[in-house]
Write a structure and sequence with these properties.
With about 180 residues, the chain is α+β, with helices and mostly antiparallel strands. The protein has six helices and seven strands; from the N terminus they run ββββαααβααββα. The strands form two sheets. Strands 1, 2, 3 and 4 form a four-stranded antiparallel beta sheet that branches. Helix 2 crosses helix 6 and helix 3 packs across helix 4.
Length: about 180
């Protein structure tokens, strides 16, 4: 049985132009032809069997390296502006994390179904929400608001979302 890993490709025309794996954008060396996407997804699943992809993140580069700056912490006004531009789904997800602190992927999907009134809400929808939040934070060169871990529970690989404790109270207040 293959390992569960969230992969979100962005496709333009017949090419994959962006690839987000476990909530982190992977820098592509070249656009990927769509006909190669299934092979790439299989390779990622194989990699996920041996590498904890949820713990792979963009490196924080020393400021001495040109073009690469460390991710910056959020100021309250910056976070408020960031949240105002989020979709309703993204706000519900972040509010849920702020309220609970740590939550499993399954619990998030169930809560999103209830909160949004969408019984068809799926893990794929959640992957898009997570990727959108993290992609924008990376673009702004800001720290991630949450982490994603994979844990084995009862012989099953389970995704766990954890809010950064430094932002939990602020997120709860801004989204409350």
């Amino acid at each position: 049985m293959g390992e569960e890993v969230e992969v979100s490709p962005v496709i333009r025309g017949d090419k994959v132009v962006k690839l987000v794996v476990a909530g982190v954008e992977w820098p592509l060396k070249a656009e990927v032809p769509v006909q190669e996407l299934l092979k790439l997804m299989d390779a990622i699943k194989l990699l996920a069997r041996y590498v904890d992809l949820a713990r792979v993140s963009l490196p924080k580069a020393p400021s001495s390296q040109p073009g690469l700056a460390s991710l910056e912490p959020w100021a309250e006004e910056e976070l408020k502006a960031f949240l105002e531009e989020r979709t309703e789904e993204q706000k519900v997800f972040l509010r849920l994390l702020a309220e609970r602190g740590v939550v499993s992927r399954e619990e998030v999907v169930d809560a999103m179904r209830r909160e949004l009134g969408r019984p068809d809400y799926s893990g794929r929808d959640l992957a898009g929400v997570v990727a959108g939040i993290n992609r924008r934070a990376h673009t702004l060169r800001k720290e991630l608001l949450f982490t994603i871990e994979r844990r084995r529970m009862g012989g099953k690989l389970v995704g766990i979302y954890k809010v950064d404790p430094r932002y939990q109270e602020l997120l709860a207040r801004l989204l409350g």
